[in-house]
Amino acid sequence: MVWRREQARDRFFRKAKEEGYRARSAYKLLELAERYRLIRPGSAILDLGAAPGGWSQVAARLAGPGARLVAVDLTQMAPIPGVRILRCDITDPDCLRQIRDALGGEADVVLSDVAPSTTGIALADHARSIDLSTAALEIARQTLRPGGSFVVKVFRGPDFDGFVAHVRRHFQTARVVVPEATRKESKEAYVVGLGLRH
Fold first, then answer.
1. Least confidently predicted of 2-6, 51-55, 130-134, 144-148
2. Which of 45, 54, 68, 181 is 20 to 30 A away from residue 79, measured at CA?
3. What are the tens digits of pLDDT across the range 4-40?
4. Which residue in 133, 112, 136, 123 sits closest to 187, CA to CA?
5. Distance (Å, rounded) from C-alpha 167 to C-alpha 151?
6. Rg of the chain taking only CA atoms, in angstroms
7. Phi-psi label, residue 66: left if phi above 0, alpha if psi -120 to 50, beta otherwise
8. Options 3.20.20.140, 3.40.50.2000, 3.40.50.150, 3.40.50.300; which CATH number does 26-196 get?
């Protein structure tokens, strides 16, 4: 009950309900997309860790008709118009094959809001987040066009700076952003890689 009362007071939760987004996290992507001009009409977009679909909804709206959108998650997702949904594990090599087949070409943007099932043990959760973020980065490197963009959620901790440096090696620019819609108690931040190097 306490959690539900906190949700009711959360303006982003209320706004998501009013505007038809499946999750309050939609506003994180809206902020990032506007700040870095990530999604253009007709873009090819890969959304990793997509459930329940808030980011895919935003991507579909911003990219519009003619876009290619592929959403990937371990869990079942309700359909989203214009989005092809894959159910697979991004740490499984076969998932990359499925993604490439579904994209039918290179992506302009790879998005990853993937997060581990949390244990409440900060170091363990951070380590699992780094593992998933590294898997997302590898998929981005394998699927993005030269000059493409990458956005990934990462839990802060001892290996965070090392991960940012890893992104920086593969992209011309790497930025760390905490969007306004991030809860104050959250350890998450977003790493934005711009301009994939080839």
1. 2-6
2. 181
3. 444 445 787 787 777 767 788 999 999 999 999 999 9
4. 123
5. 10
6. 16
7. left
8. 3.40.50.150
Structure tokens at 42: 């007709």
Q: What is the 3-state secondary structure (H, E, C) of 43-89?
A: CEEEEECCCCCHHHHHHHHHHCCCCEEEEEECCCCCCCCCEEEEECC
Q: What residues are labeled active site?
A: 153
The number of CA neighbours under 13 Å toward the Cβ of 47 is 29
Residue with tokens 């994939």: 196
The tally of CA atoms less than 13 A away on the side-chain side of residue 182 is: 18
